[in-house]
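$ ./design --mode recover --in tokens.txt
reading tokens...
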């Protein structure tokens, strides 16, 4: 199969996945996918994205602004060049944010467990709910440990690639 065709299919599939996973528009998902797949090195320019996707400048701009504001992508500039070069954040960054969200959720669960433990009415429904919340928190603790371990691996790989590419 033609590698350009494979790349286009991969970008389409990944765009759909990102769209569904992050509740973003199809265009925004496709742009993000392009930046992940093609945006290595110095990144992709606004003009390249407009030309490649065949979308209006305002639509591409809105998608890039959304992705930038939500810390999915970033841009850099080159001295003497007025263009912005957009790139997706490294894979590890996604998991750093995931862990921060998990920390917040675990703190929230602690408060819910404390509240539910104090409830005056001790019904079987309340007891079941409390047990479910505790089981979920235990599950989050396990996911947190696995994610931290995987994040260490990702950072080592990214650091090695950074050294190799410089």
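writing sequence...
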């Amino acid at each position: 199969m033609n590698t350009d065709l494979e790349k286009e299919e991969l970008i389409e599939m990944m765009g759909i996945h990102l769209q569904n996973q992050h509740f973003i528009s199809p265009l925004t998902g496709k742009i993000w996918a392009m930046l992940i797949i093609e945006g290595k090195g110095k990144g992709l320019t606004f003009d390249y994205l407009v030309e490649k996707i065949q979308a209006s400048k305002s639509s591409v701009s809105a998608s890039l602004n959304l992705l930038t504001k939500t810390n999915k992508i970033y841009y850099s500039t080159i001295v003497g060049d007025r263009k912005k070069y957009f790139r997706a954040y490294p894979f590890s960054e996604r998991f750093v944010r995931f862990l921060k969200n998990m920390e917040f959720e675990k703190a929230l669960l602690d408060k819910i467990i404390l509240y539910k433990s104090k409830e005056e009415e001790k019904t079987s429904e309340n007891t079941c709910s409390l047990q479910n919340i505790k089981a979920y928190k235990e599950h989050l603790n396990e996911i947190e440990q696995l994610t931290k371990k995987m994040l260490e691996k990702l950072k080592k790989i990214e650091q090695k690639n950074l050294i190799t590419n410089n």
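exit 0
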